[in-house]
Amino acid sequence: MESKKSKYSFGESIGKFIKYLKPYYFWLILAIIFAVGGTICSIIGPNQIGEMTNIIQDAVYAGTAIDLEAIARIGILLVVLYAISSVLSYLQGLIMTEVVQRSTKRMRTDIYAKINKLPLRYYDSHTFGDTLSMVTNDVDTIGLSFNQSTVMLISGATLILGSLIMMFVTAWQLALVALVCVPLGFGLMALILKFSQRYFTSQQAQIGEINGIVEETYSGHNIVSAFNAQEKMDNKFKTTNSKLYKSQYKSQFISGIMMPIMQFIGNLGYVAVCIVGGILCLNGEIGIGAIISFMIYIRLFTQPLATIAQSVSSMQSVAAASGRVFEFLEEQEMPNETPKLELSNIKGDVKFEDVQFGYNKNKPVIKGFTAHALPGQKIALVAPTGAGKTTLVNLLMKFYDIDGGDIKIDDVSIKDISRENAHRLFGMVLQDTWQFEGTIYENIAFNTPNVTNEDVVGACKRVGLDHYIRTLPEGYNTVLDDTVSLSAGQKQLLTIARAMVHNAPLLILDEATSSVDTRTEIIIANAMDELSKGRTSFVIAHRLSTIKNADQIWVMEDGKVAESGTHDELIKQNGRYAELYNSQF
Questions:
Q1: What is the DSSP string of 516-577?
Q2: In the predicted model, is pLDDT for residue 3 greater than 50?
Q3: Homologous superfamily of 10-329 in CATH?
Q4: pLDDT one-digit tens code per residue, 160-202
Q5: Neighbouring-strand partners of residue 564
Q6: Residue 305 · residue 295 · CB < 8 Å
Q7: Sign of CA pseudo-dihedral 244, 247, 250, 253
Q8: Which of 423, 418, 468, 421 is nearest to 446 (CA)?
Q9: Rounded to a whole number, what is the largest CA-CA distance in the chain?
Q10: Residues 164, 168, 169: CA angle, nearest 5 degrees
Q11: With bands split at pLDDT 50, 70 and 90, how would you rate the model's confidence at 222?
């Protein structure tokens, strides 16, 4: 799988990130002021050292006593200047740390909020590990790299500008010599930056991909082991890891060239200044103090070139990571459905009118599905795997929007009710169970208001889970974590109890008894019959013995209803349902 190329260039990604920092502009400006102030204080120092040198030089040449009071005044001034510089630099670092931490906290919050706003279509085409990588690796990369690079850029730029001014003040001839090397250095930096950015982008994408592989392998560890697929998964990991290694190597190697080049150019300018300065001094055009000051300034001038090169390298990581984050944050969200109707106290009349849907619009899965479920009926959906049973349920729950036709609940189009309202109308038990790290009680009462202890215990008794729970050390207060091992069947019973407590007017059971034994299946079937009374329920089951008492059985084929009726009616028809039933019994 090739890494997805970011649609944003280096400049666009940095520009978007700077706009994202708008709430913190005041503090950023304050940090810049402190950084500039601290750097200016450090720049003034060499000039005062030059003055001190000139005082000593003049006294030696004249054969007079050295003015120690003047030396002391300059010394005290230097101490004050460097102390102020240190304090301002500390405050600037403190502010930048605060800004970066607040901005990354906000970014994580925005990503998490975005996760809940994206349609399921997005997750059909993206791995979980890649999304998780944005919340962890990409945001951390942005925070660490931006903090370091911003401080270095601000300080470096100020140091270069201030040093340049002071060099012209001290000796304009030497300043012109020093400037000859600067365009060459920045030209090479721009060339390297343009060439290496693609590898930084690839690096972040590969990190997301490798996280996806680790997540899939870890969550499916039992399957991998059962099929002896360790070597295959290892090879897949090694292939992606090799791509990540190459991207990281190339990005770090190419960007790492910048600092040595800048150091070489800086040293070249340093040597040139030494030669020209010596000639000027011999000719009597400048004094020794000016040369000493200038030597410090040229070092202050050339040192930030290497620092800026390093900070630009860090900014490349920021650009690559922020480009991925902003692409995610700009993904199309599910439409806002606040103004839509809110159904309550429904009867449970559900109509499917020529429903059309496909995950890929060129390949429809549901093709003109038409059926009618009366209030309180138990509807069984029967079909071979892949015929669209679960897809139909997803449309009922508004996990996906239909492409054509309509679904009506009590004669109200599902298009006119909010997605949240549709979710509240249904109790749902899926084939894939889900639990979170919390107590058993919290797992069963999950997000259902006004739940009492009696409701939870009663639901567990009806599904046959109460006895097992009471054998646990903490009973219903037992925390479900790695130390508590529930079987697949017990996890299914827990989710069924959760649906019972939810007490919704409509019910969906997608292979709800697929992971339990025959005896438990009978217990659940009886509990479901009781739960289904007065509720319209849709049952998906491959075990046809569990749906013999359904009020209506809809046999799906090619995205449509091929047959419908009760169990006895369909057996008499000797059609597709009879064929499926007889194949099992």
A1: S-HHHHHHHHHHHHHHHTTSEEEEE-S-GGGGTT-SEEEEEETTEEEEEE-HHHHHHHTSHH
A2: no
A3: ABC transporter type 1, transmembrane domain (1.20.1560.10)
A4: 777 777 778 777 777 777 777 666 666 776 677 667 767 777 7
A5: 554
A6: no
A7: negative
A8: 423
A9: 128
A10: 115
A11: low
In eight-state DSSP terms, residue 297 is H
Provide the pLDDT confidence category of residue 128 given band limits of 50, 70 and 90: confident
Q: What's the pLDDT tens digit per position in 59-97? A: 766 667 777 888 888 888 888 888 888 898 888 888 888
Say yes or no to pLDDT of 2 above 70: no
Do 350-584 and 10-329 have the same topology in CATH?
Answer: no
Domain spans, the chain: 10-329, 350-584
Query: What's the average model confidence in pLDDT over 248-271?
Result: 74
CB 355 within 8 Å of CB 402: yes
What tokens does 518 get?
Answer: 């025959």
Q: Is 169 helix (H, G, I), strand (E, B) or coil?
A: helix
* Tokens standing for residue 111: 């990503």
Which fold would CATH assign to domain 350-584?
A: Rossmann fold (3.40.50)
Give yes or no for a contact between 194 and 115, defined as CB atoms under 8 angstroms apart. Answer: no
The model's pTM: 0.65
Which residues, at least 6 apart from 189, have a Cβ–Cβ distance to it below 8 Å?
258, 261, 262, 308, 309, 312
Hey, what are 200's tokens? Answer: 């930084």
H-type alpha helices, 63-171: 68-115, 120-124, 128-133, 139-170
**Which residue, 144, 554, 219, is CA-closest to 388?**
554
